[in-house]
Amino acid sequence: MQQTDTRISGEAKSASATPALGTRFRPVLFVTLFSLLLPFLLNHVSAYAQEFTYESGPLDDLTSWTGDPQSFEEDGQTFIITGIAIGDTVSVENTWTLGGEGTVLEIDTEEVIVFESGSEVIFDGITISFTENSGGDLAARGDLSLSGGITWQYGDKADVWSFDNRADGDQTISADGESRLLVYNFRSDKRNGSLDLMFDDDEPATSETPAILQTLNNFRTDYDSNALFSDNGNRIIVGDDIRMLGRAGSYTLSGTLEHRVHDGNSDYEAVAAELHHLSIHVREDGNPRFRNVINYSKSVIINGDLAIDMDSDGDFEFNDVEIEIAGDFHLSHHRPAGTSEEDDAEVDMDEAVISIGGDFIVHVTKEVADDDENIDMDDAVVTVGGDFYVNATEYGEFDLDDSSVSVTDGYARFEATDGGIIDLDNGSLTVNSDILFVLDETSELDLDDAIVAITGSISIDAELATVITSDELTVRYFGDGDQTISSLEGRHYHTLEIEKSNGTISIPENIIVSDLFLATLDEDALLADEGNDIRIGNWFTVSGHNDRYDLQGTVTMSEIPPPVDESIDRAGNPGSNNRESTGRQKTVQNTTGNDEGEITLTYQQTTPRAVQFDLFILPEPDTDPGEITQQFTLAEINETNRSSVSFSEESPVFMLRQHPDGYGGQVILSELSWLLPGDPRTTDSEPEPDRPETFRLEQNYPNPFNPATNISFSIPEAANVTMEVFNIQGQRVATLVDGNREPGIHEVSFDASSLSSGMYIYRIQAGEFVDVRKMMLVR
User: Fold this and answer.
1) Given this model, what pLDDT does residue 595 score?
2) What is the DSSP-derived secondary structure letter of residue 564?
């Protein structure tokens, strides 16, 4: 042992006497390494030293924290709220500013944290971290300001604190656009005082400004009496149910309420507030619901836009509710792949009443083709003040099933591409302008049993291979402007109705009507067929004076045609029976007395078998007319006859049909003209200016309406007039006219502000004339 020690000592001495090159640099290396490590060591010690834990007292008091913090605004500090006894609260009494680069506020308690009334809490650029032990309430009764880009950290969203303030008083939550207040639930009730959401910046908040408030779960408020909740144009994001109780006047909302429904059912409970913009974002199995049940919203008012972006295997239910939208309604629905039969994955508007002041814009798509619709408007009543636009692509399907859509001041455009389907089956669509269908060869258009009413024109721009069905399609042309009747790309109308008092309706190409053609014209209206063929499968009906019709072409009465008649040129070129239009026909000179009318026509058989057709002259259209006025028979092919029939009925309707008992066959009618009883027997007679020729009650306009509408009626002679309004139970709710009226066109207004939504009936009696119509009040 002694030798070992001596040897080591000797080696050391020898090395000292003759040092190696590396040994000479060891002290220098040590100093260098120490100098490099020193900042790290100091920072580590400093960071450890700047971790402070709440002990007791107000949060805004430095002495309430262990570790002796010198300031709440130095860099790199961590403040931990933990170890609070059950039932105890921690609070801020005055002003608490927590800032500094890298500063962390760690919430490690489920107990209540209170920002007292009159206090001010400012979080500036810090990180707020929630542990698995957190998830309590934040009772913020004072002002709260977030700026500098607050970072929120949490593992489970349920660990985030919930905002719960049910105390009166004024308070403000402000953010600078880079930060937001994040909470799990938001609850705020007041009877006095205000809560303002403020954008803390020089520029005002816009639609692109980030949200100031975001709830990961429910948003619930109750404001009444003298309380006021104001979003000041800012965005609020809600993750689940929405409930806003109290008075609508206690809410001033001019920003966007964004509803993110990404998991399960999310209800719109009672929503008293008038919303501004409502944006709904649906993903995964999200299922938003407006429901007409107790404690849920029957009626929702949106003073701005409603936007729905849905890519989900859940449903969106609008069932049996009333939604009033002052702006636009944007609805986008995509059905993802893997949707099961149990998942309807659609937007369901069953029996909803929806009023839209602006445009209604719909986009529907699917991941894979199936037999179900994206949008089901079953029994809904929808009123659109702007344009109505539907785009179905990538197998998307829009279904108007049994619903009623009225476009009061715009056009309707439907586009279908890449397997898209437009289905108006059993729906009713009224458009005070034009309707256009644009389809590619892969798409489908189903017009079976649909009722379409327009003041403009209906046209179809489709490929030859496009699947279009129009069985039982009814199209009604109305309004005072000029209109054009389209051939529907060779497809047939089932029923074609024309009802006009002014304007010209023209038929620039051959058309097919498989059941009923009905034209009712008065005053200054004119129907011009421009020499084209009107092909009828059952009834051809005209009502009104002869000089309202310019019939230069022919009417072909034939058996119900196939969906596409190949004999009709799709480009609308005239057939062999066409003639050039020479303008309005003059009344033909007639030898009958003024107390009789007369109708004349030429008819030609074009089939080998004998045919019969019937003429009915009636006071009003009736497809179950009873006794035949005149029956016509032809026995030989190409046999042609001309006939004249006298009659005495006032204001007659002429109805021609094929005889129903097995004598059907094609016959061509031409040179159709008539004189009514009492008409002057000169060729240039004109009705008395501004004096109606018949009694008439018009459809109210607008319809549906809210809350007022106008009703017109015409009387050709002075009469005692009574007009009354009844509800569907038969109870009279208003008397609009009661007294004598001079001949002319009269208009009255009906204000239904005090009445509830629903169907109403209005009835007129003028002398012996009685008529009844329906109207719809939609709130």
Assistant:
1) 75
2) B
Residues 590-617 have pLDDT tens digits of 344 467 888 999 888 877 777 788 899 9
Decide: residue 695, CB within 10 A, 0-12 exposed, 13-18 middle, 19+ buried: buried
- 386: DSSP letter: S
Whole-angstrom distance, CA of residue 272 vs CA of residue 432 = 33
pLDDT at 560: 52
596: left (phi over 0), alpha (psi -120 to 50) or beta: beta
> In this structure, are residues 274 and 249 in contact, taking their beta carbons and an 8 Å threshold?
no
For residue 384, what are the CA distances in angstroms to 256, 354, 358, 431?
A: 22, 9, 7, 9
Q: How confident is the model over 369-404, as pLDDT tens digits?
A: 888 888 888 889 999 999 999 999 999 999 988 899
pLDDT of residue 321: 87
Q: List CB contacts of 218: < 8 A, sequence separation 6 or more.
A: 185, 186, 187, 238, 239, 240, 241, 242, 243
What letters, b where the CB count within 10 A reaches 16 and e where it falls short, cover 327-337? bbbbbbbbbee
* Segment holding 411, helix H or strand E: none
725-763 pLDDT per residue, tens: 998 888 999 999 999 888 888 889 999 999 988 888 999
Q: Which of 171, 37, 47 is nearest to 100 (CA)?
A: 47
**Are 427 and 448 a contacting pair, CB within 8 Å?**
no
pLDDT at position 13 over 50: no
Which residues are paired to 475 by β-bridges? 452, 496
The answer to whether residues 528 and 506 touch, using CB atoms and an 8 Å cutoff, is yes
Strand partners, 616: 655
CA atoms within 13 A on the CB side of 128: 21
**Pair 374, 364: CB distance under 8 Å:** yes
Q: Can you say how many angstroms the Cα of residue 116 is from the centroid of all Cα atoms in its chain?
A: 44
Phi/psi of residue 157, each to 5°? -60, -25
- Tens-digit pLDDT profile for residues 398-420: 998 889 999 999 999 999 999 99
Kindly state the average pLDDT of the residues 689-703: 80
DSSP 271: E
**Rg (the chain; Cα; Å):** 40
C-alpha–C-alpha distance, residues 544 and 565, integer Å? 30
Distance set, CA 436 to CA 364, 426, 462, 497, 632 (Å): 18, 19, 10, 19, 40
Q: What residues are paired with 534 via a beta bridge?
A: 511, 555
472 three-class SS: coil
Dihedral over Cα of 432, 346, 445, 439: its sign: positive
